Amino acid sequence: MAWTAIISSVLVLWFASLCKVFHESLFSSKAAFLNEGAHPRRRNVLLVIAHPDDESMFFAPVINYLISRDHNLHILCMSTGNADGMGSIRKEELYLASAVLKIPAQQVKTLDHPDLQDGFGKVWNWNLLASIIEEETRTHSVDLIITFDNYGISGHCNHCDVHQGLRKLLQDASGRHLEAWEIVSPNIVRKYIGPVDIWLSILFSRLKKDGQSYCLLNLDLCKSYAAMAQHSSQWVWFRKLFVTFSSCTYVSTLKKIE
Q1: From which residue to which does the signal peptide run (predicted)?
Q2: What whole-number distance in Å separates Cα of residue 248 and Cα of residue 246?
Q3: Residues 126, 168 contacting (CB under 8 angstroms)
Q4: pLDDT cut 90: percent of the chain above it
Q5: d(CA 63, CA 165)
Q6: Does pLDDT of 250 surpass 70?
Q7: Residue 254 and residue 256: Cα distance in Å, rounded?
Q8: Can you give the pTM of this predicted structure?
Q9: CA dihedral of residues 210, 41, 44, 126 (deg, nearest 10)
Q10: Inter-axis angle of helices 60-68 and 221-229, to 10 degrees?
Q11: Cα separation of 76 and 88, whole Å?
């Protein structure tokens, strides 16, 4: 009986959480991120990721929010994800996923730099990353950058290096204003409680009220699943489970990098 009660409670929580997500997708989201007054300006945003599929697996709530607000979003992917020799395939999959997410192909760039190859133990030079990000921001007049935090959600070293590369750029960007935000890595418990984590994310965001942290719900779950499915070389059973049970699918918390 006890287990039945626990399972029933979990199912009710999941249902209530999904209802919250769908409610926000049908009505305007209360998130104030980049809402600057009655007529917020369109921002040129650069999302910096390490591998193809990072955008769909970790940043879908952020992407859907930005696109729904008509911001001009560019994606810079630092590698082709060639650890298993499928770099060319994964690169094309990124373009397919971006199309589903309504990001034009000309606003997606994937690098295949010899010093930025995918893999655990592959150390990426922070100075090199900073220079590449800076060039991209100048090319597209970017004034806002989003990337991983220092843990990189999954702890992958490439994710962490991308974060450090952006920090290096911010430190060296003398006389130039660049606004930067990081996606906060949830702890191991919150990471795998699916949509239930939206309540904790909303609570923590409201407690801070400092304008330095925002909680964004995924406004289009179906689009997110469809985008991840475009990465067919990676769409294996354990990633399907991850996308279903990871809180990253349902909610993102962005924190300003000072």
Answers
A1: 1-19
A2: 5
A3: yes
A4: 71
A5: 21
A6: yes
A7: 7
A8: 0.91
A9: -20
A10: 120
A11: 16
Kindly state the tokens that stand for 43: 């921002």
**Beta carbons of 247 and 187 less than 8 angstroms apart:** no
Q: Are 194 and 249 in contact (CB under 8 A)?
A: yes
Which residue type does 84 have? D
Q: Given pLDDT bands bounded at 50, 70 and 90, which one contains residue 203? A: confident
pLDDT digits 0-9 by tens, 153-176? 999 999 999 999 999 999 987 657
The full DSSP string for 139-172 is HTT--EEEEE-SSTTT--HHHHHHHHHHHHHHHH
Task: Please report the pLDDT score of residue 17 as a whole number.
Answer: 60
Residue with tokens 């990426």: 124
β strands within 3-103, DSSP E: 44-49, 72-77
**CB-based burial of residue 258 (10 Å sphere; 0-12 exposed, 13-18 middle, 19+ buried)?**
exposed
